[in-house]
Amino acid sequence: AQMDLPVLVEGVLDEIDLPEIIRDSTGTMASETVRSVRIQSVSADESVARLVDRLLRRRAREAGQDGGAELDSAPGSGTDGGGH
Amino acid sequence: MDAHDHELSAIPKGARSFQGQRAGVVTRVLAAGIDVAVVAAVLVAVYLGWAGLLFMVDPRSFTFPDTKFIASLLIAAATMFVYLTIAWAVGGRTYGNLLMGLRVVGVYGGDVGWFRAVLRAAFYVGLPIGLLWVAIDPRQRSIQDRVLATAVVYDWKPRVARQSPHADA
Predict the structure, then answer these.
(1) B164 with A71: CB under 8 angstroms?
(2) N or C: at which end does chain A have fewer Cβ atoms within 10 angstroms?
(3) pLDDT given for residue B160 in this prediction
């Protein structure tokens, strides 16, 4: 039987997360600490945003929507239209 | 599933979803704190270096150089201004931004550029409390971001070509 090797390789890469394995095997304590602090601060950002939204009785922010956290579209090019 | 999905990314899987999105107040305040510590460390090092030089020149009459509060504050502010300007204009990130995985971009993506970097640095040095507006603003903008049409986004890529993080989001 013939095997579709590229598809198989892509599937394996998706499953094993090769960069993660490389990071785990070569990462220093410092870089692990930095990653951990970054992740925790992102969750703290989200918690603060949720709290402020609740206090101000504002609709929760959703990424990519109006009022969301992504960058604005260029003037006249997008649907977001957030002006500054 | 397109070819992009199979690219090997340096960013952990759990962190990919928020890359390119605007950063919140906690991360930004932590980054700013690191930058303040960096500038303070540089100033202390310069002061000790100067004191060491004076000691070597004339050890007998050596005393630590006098530091005037206002003058020290002005020197610290000027150092911070130069540091922020160069860091934002050249790479879009200070050392604090780098550690916290942030990048300063134009509000529509792209570089901040020297002109906006100078204004932004002066604005932050003059009104640092403007950063706290990020917590209240629905689009996570500081007062400086609102005035100068800039944004700070999560960008964990260690070294990126100058492009809009929005394209990678």
Answers:
(1) yes
(2) N
(3) 53
Q: Which residues contact B86 (CB under 8 A, 6 or more apart)?
A: B117
A40 vs A84: which has the higher pLDDT: A40
| Structure-token pair, residue B84 | 């922020």
From CA A32, how far away is CA A38, in angstroms rounded? 10
Check residue B162 and report its DSSP letter: S
- Closest-CA residue of A relative to B97 is A38
**Which residue is associated with the tokens 């206002």?**
B70
| Window B:105-144, CB contacts with A under 8 Å | 105, 107-109, 135-136, 138-140
Q: How far apart are CA B163 and CA A18, in angstroms?
A: 25
Chain B contact present for A5, CB below 8 A = no
ipTM value = 0.78
- DSSP E strands: which ranges in B26-156? 102-106, 150-154
Contacts of A72 (CB under 8 A, 6+ apart): A78, A80, A81, A82, A84, B107, B108, B139, B151
**Torsion angles phi and psi, residue A17, rounded to 5:** 50, 70
